[in-house]
Amino acid sequence: MLRTHKLGEADRIITLLSRSHGKIRAVAKGVRRTASKFGSRLEPFMVVDAQFYEGRTLDIVTQAESLGSYGSDITGDYSAYTAASVMVETADKITDDDGSLQQYLLLVGALRSLARKEHPVSLTLDSYLLRALSIAGWAPSFGDCAVTGEPGPHTVFVAQLGGVVADRVAPPGSPRLDSRTIALLASLLSGDWADAEAADDRQQSQASGIVAAYTQFHLERSLRSLQHVDRTTA
After folding, report:
1. Both 148 and 209 in a single domain?
2. For the domain that residue 45 is a member of, what is the CATH number?
3. Alpha carbon of 76 to those of 79, 82, 84: distances in Å?
4. Torsion angle of alpha carbons 29, 33, 38, 40, nearest 10°?
5. For residue 61, what pLDDT is reported?
6. pLDDT digits (tens, 9 = 90+) for 141-191
7. Would you say the C-alpha torsion 120, 122, 126, 128 has a positive or negative sign?
8. 145 and 207 share a domain?
9. Structural domain for 8, as ranges
10. What are 106-120's pLDDT values in tens digits?
């Protein structure tokens, strides 16, 4: 479940990312009534097995069974909630109506990890964003120069150029990262959690800033939920 909008007095329009049918927009009738048989299952961050009646403009939800009840665990933790909000907004923007199985599996795995508190929230979010962008074709380089291909290590990161770049091609004023922050970014992209969790707070904060800038550059629009992310307890 990506998002919902109120419709009339008791209905909602829901947007889901499906495993094999892309993004689906449908009307869930009566879900805002307390007697609704599946209202709680059709909330953001939930994973459901749903059936639909094909309508003229929007489909109609006829049945929904929970596959992953992550909503309550995520919404009960503000830092997890804000991170999950960024994830579903990113998934909504980064996938077209045809969808992507890889994006679907990545999002479900990230939400499950948040709900189970498997890793620090901030690292989970940054890893998700880097991987989602990579699946979409915007994999950043944290080793070789993104422009010339010169072997690293390089310490200048330029989002517009695709990652770290050699000093001789770096635009003036580009941010320079320490080697440990670059290693952290590479670990988040590859899923090396032991290495990522060994980074200190300053390195994690610097990496988060880089990930946010890189994400918003490639999405070509701001993520409204990103400004609300709570990293203080992550």
Report:
1. yes
2. 2.40.50.140
3. 9, 11, 12
4. 120
5. 87
6. 999 999 999 998 999 999 999 999 999 999 998 889 999 999 999 999 999
7. positive
8. yes
9. 3-71
10. 999 999 999 999 999
The span from the CA of 30 to the CA of 11, in Å, is 5
What pTM does this model have? 0.90
| Measured distance CA(130)–CA(188) in Å, rounded | 7
- pLDDT at residue 233 in the model: 43
226 and 207 Cβ atoms separated by less than 8 Å: no
Instruction: For 66-88, give the DSSP string.
Output: EEE--HHHHHTSHHHHHHHHHHH
Tell me whether strands 3-7 and 47-53 are parallel, antiparallel or unpaired. Answer: unpaired
Q: Which residues of the chain fall below pLDDT 70?
A: 34-39, 221, 230-234
The answer on 128 and 66 residing in a single domain is no
How many CB atoms are located within 10 Å of the residue 198 CB?
13
The verdict on 125 and 220 lying in the same domain is: yes
